[in-house]
């Protein structure tokens, strides 16, 4: 943090020309990056912070050609104590590679689109739990959801969301409460919010935020306290801030910050600090300014829950559900119970989930409401 401690590590491209290092990524104390020394093109380098220890790892695309895409399209991540990245060796196109920092240990993981065509053209790699997720194209199914455990055999298509040779173009992978959320396209729903557990059957649409085939285009995913926040456009209120717990009922607009038909607050730069989500948005009055949402940790999962009409006192939950609200009440999925004699009125949409649910005299679900009692719950 001082002038004397700020020094050039190495002049990789001799003279006044630039090597343009980018994609700096730490793997176990070794810095990997891409640089062009003027001879080999943009290739993979590493550094231990010394001039002598700053060297090219491998000339992946031999000769003066570059193995890597431009700065804005590079994707390099640490995974399983190795560097995983997308490169083009001039034979297989842009595909998934990995490196342990040695020439012999810098190898192609899988040729997703067999041959010269690129299976991962300018795509992003997302490390989630023990897998990498990305959009891949094998030339048969289009650009679809793939995952990799770092091996050739373990690099596979998860699901052909837009069936046939069309493209679902999955993007924005984000983990919250054990669920991987992302945006994807199909010809029925457009580009909407999806989730996956890494299996084909567990890869499903969460909610079609805008009706029919039009697209809400979810973007800017971020996770906080078992929920995701993102921006979307429902076709009438413009691009606003949304949240989801992985259910259709739990996927809602947080606030119409810039009210009015197709007025859009366009939230950007979503950032979490101490359970507070900060972002920039325009409310139509103050211009683009700093906003925040306080996101409290989830409440403990109750073993039993008694819901009755007010008044009520702890530990009984006294509440009637009214208005255009969407609500879920959960008790423990392993032996938990809900007993309810409250009222659901005025177009409310309510779900009770537990191992057992008992609706006692006095319970009302009025015409025009939606009420579901289903086996499930929290843990």
How does this model look, in words?
The chain has strands spanning 22-27, 30-36, 42-47, 55-58, 76-79, 82-88, 94-99, 107-110, 126-128, 131-137, 143-148, 156-159, 171-176, 179-186, 190-196, 204-207, 219-224, 227-233, 239-244, 252-255, 268-273, 276-282, 288-294, 304-308, 317-318, 326-330, 337-340, 343-344, 349-354, 356-359, 364-365, 370-375. The model has no long low-confidence stretch (mean pLDDT 93). Strands 1-2-3-4 form a four-stranded antiparallel β-sheet, with no helix packed on it. The chain is an all-beta fold and 379 residues long. The protein is elongated, with a radius of gyration of 25 Å. A hairpin with a 2-residue loop joins β9 and β10 (131-137). The protein starts with 21 loop residues before the first strand and ends with a strand. Helix content is 0%, strand content 44%.
Write the layout of secondary structure elements.
Layout: E1 22-27, E2 30-36, E3 42-47, E4 55-58, E5 76-79, E6 82-88, E7 94-99, E8 107-110, E9 126-128, E10 131-137, E11 143-148, E12 156-159, E13 171-176, E14 179-186, E15 190-196, E16 204-207, E17 219-224, E18 227-233, E19 239-244, E20 252-255, E21 268-273, E22 276-282, E23 288-294, E24 304-308, E25 317-318, E26 326-330, E27 337-340, E28 343-344, E29 349-354, E30 356-359, E31 364-365, E32 370-375
Parallel strand pairs: 24-25, 24-27, 26-29, 27-30, 28-31, 29-32
Antiparallel strand pairs: 1-2, 2-3, 3-4, 5-6, 6-7, 7-8, 9-10, 10-11, 11-12, 13-14, 14-15, 15-16, 17-18, 18-19, 19-20, 21-22, 22-23
């Amino acid at each position: 943090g001082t002038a004397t401690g700020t020094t050039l590590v190495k002049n990789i491209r001799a003279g006044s020309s630039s090597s343009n290092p980018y994609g700096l990524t730490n793997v176990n104390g070794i810095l990997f990056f891409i640089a062009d020394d003027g001879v080999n093109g943009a290739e993979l380098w590493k550094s231990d912070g010394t001039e002598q220890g700053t060297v090219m790892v491998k000339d992946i695309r031999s000769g003066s050609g570059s193995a890597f895409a431009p700065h804005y399209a590079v994707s390099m991540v640490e995974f399983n104590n190795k560097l995983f990245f997308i490169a083009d060796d001039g034979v297989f196109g842009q595909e998934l590679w990995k490196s342990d920092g040695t020439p012999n240990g810098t190898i192609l993981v899988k040729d997703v689109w067999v041959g010269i065509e690129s299976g991962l053209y300018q795509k992003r790699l997302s490390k989630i739990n023990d897998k990498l997720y990305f959009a891949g194209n094998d030339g048969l199914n289009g650009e679809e959801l793939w995952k990799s455990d770092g091996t050739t055999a373990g690099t596979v298509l998860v699901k052909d969301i837009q069936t046939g040779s069309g493209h679902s173009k999955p993007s924005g992978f984000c983990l919250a409460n054990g669920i991987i959320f992302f945006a994807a396209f199909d010809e029925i729903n457009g580009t909407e919010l999806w989730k996956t557990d890494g299996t084909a059957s567990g890869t499903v649409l969460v909610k079609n935020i805008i009706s029919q085939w039009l697209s809400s285009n979810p973007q800017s995913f971020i996770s906080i306290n078992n929920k995701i926040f993102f921006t979307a456009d429902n076709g009438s209120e413009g691009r606003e801030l949304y949240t989801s717990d992985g259910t259709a009922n739990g996927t809602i607009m947080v606030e119409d910050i810039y009210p009015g038909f197709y007025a859009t607050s366009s939230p950007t730069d979503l950032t979490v600090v101490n359970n507070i989500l900060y972002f920039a948005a325009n409310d139509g009055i103050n211009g683009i300014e700093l906003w925040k949402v306080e996101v409290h940790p989830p409440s403990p999962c109750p073993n039993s829950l008694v819901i009755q009409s007010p008044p009520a006192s702890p530990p009984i939950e006294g509440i009637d559900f009214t208005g255009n609200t969407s609500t879920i009440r959960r008790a423990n999925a392993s032996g938990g119970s809900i007993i309810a004699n409250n009222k659901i009125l005025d177009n409310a949409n309510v779900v009770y989930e537990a191992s057992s649910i008992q609706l006692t005299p006095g319970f009302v679900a009025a015409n025009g409401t939606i009420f579901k009692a289903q086996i499930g719950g929290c843990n």
